[in-house]
Structure prediction request, 406 residues.
Amino acid sequence: MTELIVPAIISCIVAFFTVYVMTPSLIKFLRKRNFSVKDVNKKEHIMIVRPGGPSIIAGIITSEIVLYIFFQSNEILVIIITSSIAFVIGYVDDRKVMGGWFKPVALVIAATPIILLGTYDSNLSFPLFGSVHIPVLYIGIIIFMIPITGNTINSIDVLNGVASGFMIIASFSLSIALFILQNYEMAIISLPLGFVSLAFYKFHKIPSKIFPGDSGALTLGGMYGAIAILGHVEIIASVALLPAVINSFLFLTSVKRIVEHRKIKGIPVEHTEDFKLKATDDKTAPVTLVRLILASGPLSEKQVGHAIFKLAIFSGILAIITAFMTGASI
Amino acid sequence: MKIGLFGFLFVMWILIIIGGGILVTILGPFSITGYGDFDWILTSGFKAIFAIILVIIWILIMSKLKNWIFRKELKF
Prediction:
């Protein structure tokens, strides 16, 4: 355990400072090339640059390379490759808006390194009841896991700071769960995700200076999904992600098809005169987590963000309880 | 409203644990024999179908529960 402390500290410092130092330069670069979109939740006409994905993937790759120097494990290679593929898919969508099916289908490619390098265990562990051996079915879980986590994080990237802030809470909950389950190496491999998100949050929090874009959100979600599979904590990871899962669940059950959110005609949220967010009564608009939070009355963007973070902390606590329950069998 | 969302999250969590219990106690030990080399394919196929049915039931319960918990707020 003690021999793991040095690589853990170095990789966390590298993860945090790579993003912290690189993002201001990326903002300048994107601003020069006018890669910006309007922040629709601000009264003034404010343009925000995107995507922040390049600094996020740089933080992940450099910190995981540091860990690879110490551990030389296939799991680290898989994390790097999966996150990189997810980044490329997101970047393609950032540059050219693709159809609703593009990201879920393309992200299956990001899952293939896990299968090809054989870095998975076909036993699916459940809290209290133990594990079940499902060799064929588990391949299906791997194939679905990365597209689900990637798109789930992408779907919650709707307000300033929410995607990165949510990922800080979910990923640190997952790291704590891995420590509880005494999977120390995977816990340390997972830590850079939280520190990368933390450094990016500094620039993404309200008022945002940069948006992560599809490349940033899919990279964070892709790495999270890969950690879940490699660390054998699929159920715990799903629990920590529940608020984002609710968002996707509400969206899909109301729209009843997989569709790019930009192509939805109904508007779920509108603005009051003082530019607070307010749920609309539009029956054609999708039901989303934000719309549900706003159903009881208008709130500021910051208040909605905090409500989502409270839900994330609650599900993070449930994930940690689940980890204790997974360690103990009936 | 927010308590409703926390309750919704909690019920989702409970359903995951119950679903896991069903999978481990019923699906885990289940195996089909008597078909030679096809035993594992049939067993895996049955387990996959059973798991998909469980997921569909989970989605249906959550959908009903969503309407029940948020019936006052969901005017849209």
